[in-house]
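Async update (no meeting this week)

Hi team, since we skipped the sync, here's where things stand on the single-chain job. The sequence we agreed to prioritize is pasted below, unchanged from the tracker. I ran it this morning and attached the output directly underneath so nobody has to dig for it. Comments welcome in thread, and please keep replies under the output.
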Amino acid sequence: MNIISALSVLGLLLAGASAQKPKPCVAPPLMTGGVTLMTPSGLYTSSGTISYDAFGQKIRVRNFGFVGNETFAIDQLMLFNKKVYYEINWKEFTCKKKRLNTDFIPMHVPDNAVMMGQAVLGSSSSWGMGVLVNNWHGLLPNNGYYMSVFSDIGCIPMTFTSYTPSSGWTMVSTYNWVLGLTNPMDFFPPVICGKSELEESETADTMFTALESLARKTKNME
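Output:
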């Protein structure tokens, strides 16, 4: 009986441990926050705001950035449900419509993501000093891969790091998330995009390469 009891207790402990193992998750459906984007070379840095609508599978990013001594503004509306994104230049009052790869939507942990481990951002010495996060990694289109960090509670996205042979490393950090949207109209293309034709390209941009696109153009003009 003692052996049976011990095995029963061991089974309960293993079941509890298995139940506590982090699993792929989905971020809250409506969020607004801050975002920064940086390449390891330091040539390109930007910061701004990001809005996310899971119901419509849409992301709006407004960033101001630096490439060397040049400054630029990014305003991009990514429509994952339609596999396109709009690149809006308010300075020149132009709008471009481009292909968007939807294999990876960064506001959730895909089912095929691989768990790297857990960590505490801050300190675990006392309550309120740190945040428990889960670290994941996986593959991107065009021989790329990514690493992402989400909070263990709430599945709040914190950082995304991507690599592709064509663009190298890119890091996106998000912060100050609040649940809900400040302006639902953010997810509708502006009037100036009404007549934009879809640009033909051999490959579709991911969220990371789309965010880098204006920086690459600015760098090429130097």
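Quick observations from my side:
The chain has a mean pLDDT of 82.
DSSP finds two helices and eleven strands in the chain.
Reply here if anything looks off.
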